[in-house]
Design brief:
single chain, alpha+beta
Length: 154
């Protein structure tokens, strides 16, 4: 009987392809379903900022905490319609691509963040090289898992 490959289905999947480990800091590319081009990251901090920027751009998953503003910088016509999700509009405009076939030379992680609560992320990740799925309760736990798997494979 053949082995079944684990897959995640979500609007906000990001495939993290780790290409290099420079002085203990991971480097590589972020792939998402709405672009043909990767986002290059040169450090774990760079990766986390890039992923969070995508989630903010998609407004999905929505943040549980918002930055405090004393003067609103948004005009009323820029506010999203309550019955429409930003990510649905992005999907209509750009279509979707398969990202679960991307591969990093040191490791490949397909990340689904389900919630952005308590000022961090919660979700699941598939480590493609072992076809194993893991749950994480914080961005720190995700990074620790990625670091562990990349260094185990060497």
């Amino acid at each position: 009987m053949g082995e079944t490959k684990k897959v995640l289905f979500a609007r906000n999947l990001i495939c993290v392809c780790v290409e290099n480990d420079r002085d203990g800091d991971l480097q590589g590319e972020l792939w998402h379903q709405y672009s043909d081009d990767p986002i290059v990251f040169n450090s774990v901090a760079d990766m986390l900022v890039g992923m969070d920027a995508l989630y903010d751009h998609w407004d999905f998953p929505q943040k549980a905490l918002e930055n405090r503003e004393f003067y609103s910088s948004k005009k009323s016509e820029e506010l999203p319609q309550p019955d429409k999700l930003v990510i649905d509009e992005i999907q209509k405009k750009f279509g979707t691509r398969n990202i679960q076939n991307k591969k990093g030379s040191l490791g490949t992680f397909v990340v689904q963040v389900s919630y952005r609560q308590k000022a961090t992320w919660q979700g699941r990740v598939i480590y493609s090289e072992e076809n194993e799925q893991y749950d994480f309760t914080s961005a720190k736990a995700l990074v620790e898992l990625m670091d562990q798997k990349v260094h185990e494979g060497r």
